[in-house]
## 1
Amino acid sequence: METMDQGVLVHLMSLERAGVGQQDQHQSERIQMLKVRAASLRAKRDQLKHQASVIKILKDKIGKNLPFGDEEEDGDDETGGFAALQQSLLTAWKMQLKDLQHAHHLIGGFDLVECKEGKSVCVSFHTAYEGVYLDTYNMELDLMRTVQISRHNIPPSFPLEVLAKQSLEKDLKAFLQTVSQNLNALAARRQQVTLVKDLVGSVEVMESNELCNILVLMCSAQSEPPRAVLCTLEYKDLTQSLPTHVSIESEDKTLSGSPQWKKNQSLLLESPAHTALLTMKRMGSIA
């Protein structure tokens, strides 16, 4: 009986030792896993620090608006560092362009397509007015050194160079949005001139330039006898399709200063030209 008890005790002790051994092994494995994870986290931390450093350099570079290719090169290290910085900048541009491509394709503002194996990008600006798609303009941006416009079919009268100097290299997104806004406003003003000619037959377009920021209309006032009235619309804000100033002129000085034509002046300021003129016609102000 004692021999049996001793055998049971020996067996239990061996199991206990085995359990302790397994526990030690599990603990050792867990410690090893934690060490590996800690090393991985440290590597990720170092990578993030490096990326943050590169981003800061890029921001400083863009903020100072320094031209590329004009810096002095004192050695191979500086040349290599400059090349790496330039490559990082181009990579940042491409990432920004891809984000813009997706966003602005959805809202119909403009589309971007990478071309020439990433050396340039082509931008298509779609214009529309009152739900009708109008003209599409294209522009190619060279990404090889500084970001610059290599070619486009935007009208010569459009202030593209002025907008490029203001924000092309500092903020590409702002530049493209501003160009899109200006082109859509131009398309809207042009379309209004067309609609005035088509819808309001009694009104004659006397003057309109390429930017459509000056529009002179000849109306015939409903009076006895009928009087000719000149309405001059000025669009000083090229991002808008409504005029910033409207002047009314007539041989009959009392007519241009009358309450009715003061109201017509406000209509022309607050509504698209064709809409305002149709309202004036319904009200009996013009023939």
Note: The beta strands are 110-115, 120-129, 132-142, 148-152, 204-208, 214-221, 227-234, 245-250.
## 2
Amino acid sequence: MSANVQNSIMLFGDSITQGGWEPGINGFGASLAHRYARKLDVINRGFSGYNTEWGIPVFEQLFATREQQKDLPTVRLLIIWFGANDSCLVQSPQHVPLPKFAYNLKHLVNLVQSPKSDYYSPNTRIILVTPPPVNTYQRRANLDARDPPLLLDRDFENTRNYAERVKEIAQEEAVAIIDIWTKMWDAAGHDEQSLSNFLYDGLHLNGAGYQLMYDAVLETIEKTYPELHPDKLQMVFPGWASIDRTNVAASVQKRAAEQLPEE
């Protein structure tokens, strides 16, 4: 078991979050882990195929309760990225109606932000992320090529509606937002077929898509939670050049990468 040494950033979401560590595609999670090395650990809690309905009972197991938090590193930043599966068409078992999706997303935020919650963590900052746009041309071709072929399970406009609701929830709950839907749509020149520059199957991000996400995460942190930007944090353990070779143990003691605010 790892000792309580370094605080963390937790990424919680579906396959698009899970894929953030996939080799060879410049995943945003791996890039963040590299950028925050020796400052904050980056924890991938992405669950392929999950929606918010299934994510809530999982979150209640993977996020520490108040009592557990006393002995564990602090999750300084929680990035919640759902909607790609919730916004599936009604016939899909992954579909969650928009009002229920909104309720679930608010519930996840309140689990962390409400003083009445068993998971209340006042030193955890939250960023919500919209689902990315769907390229139905790519998605249809991908599903048609399967054996047996599958019907189209997502719709461009429907996903846009879920993305808009995420933005509203972020404002209502006073948390930060990454509108990756709009960033990707703008980068594609408002042409659905050009979304293939950022999606490899009409749904999941390729390296260029994850680069947009990585840049957006750092921009949002710098704007909304600047104290957590990697350039503002020191390393938990000092660089090798600072080690006193006559008293190594004393000179490599853990130090706080960032100062937690008083509760």
Note: Residues 69 and 229 are 23 Å apart (CA to CA).
## 3
Amino acid sequence: MSVMEHGVVRPVTAVAWTSNTGTCPKDFTLISITEDGAAANFTRSFAMKSGYYLCYSKNLTAGMVVSDIQLISDKDSIPHGYCFIAEHLEAKASVWKKKRVCMRVVPVGSVDTAVLDIKVTAKSKMMLQHYTYVGDVHGYVLWCRKGHFSSPMPKAKPRSVSLDIRRLSLDQPSALLPLRPSNPPCPLPQSKMSQRRHSLNIKNNSDKPADSSTQGITALDGVPFSLHPKFDVQANGMALQLNSQLNNIRIKSFQDIENEYNYNFVVEESAAKRTRPSVPTEAETAQ
């Protein structure tokens, strides 16, 4: 089976033993015939009904790839970072323990090269070009091909949009609503607020739509947050200077702001109460 599919080299993501096509998972490819035309049935004797076939998968859903395959004896300890391949066999069947096939599985983004293909030949002098010899397994020779592979392209996750946003169209322009924060500040006590400010707050509350489907969408949605390099302590090593600047910042209370910016309109009220001078008419001048 060719490792090239539409110009994209896909790596092997899993290797397993299986007894037949029925026990082989749907996303695995079963190696039923060797490269020299023999049946790739790993059996101990001709009296056995169930066989052993190698199968491999190239499904990248789990985000893992096989970077190496080794064949070890049952007396050898498994190498660090390796694991025995899975067994998708019948309930009464089991793989012999004299030699075990183990593989190293790593995340797809951690390596540039991986196992691209697996082939089996009968125990003969046949050599496969561009393939690496793994070892002899019960009368068969296991080969693997390693190389660079094509990483899957990331797929953008669809963002859920409310019904009101989907109704917006460029063909039917509508009046833009003012942007409002998704979490408005807590109401302040009215005893210390001017009448003008209190009337503005009432007007803003009355403009809010009854439908709350767009309240969670603000102008900052999708904008990434990043700290200005001026305040990046790890980048420029100015921790002492930054701490001194932060200590000089004074946080004003509501009473301080009222005392500093409150205006009672006394001059305007006294000017409005003044009586305007009357202009004498012609009859009054004649008298």
Note: The mean pLDDT is 75.
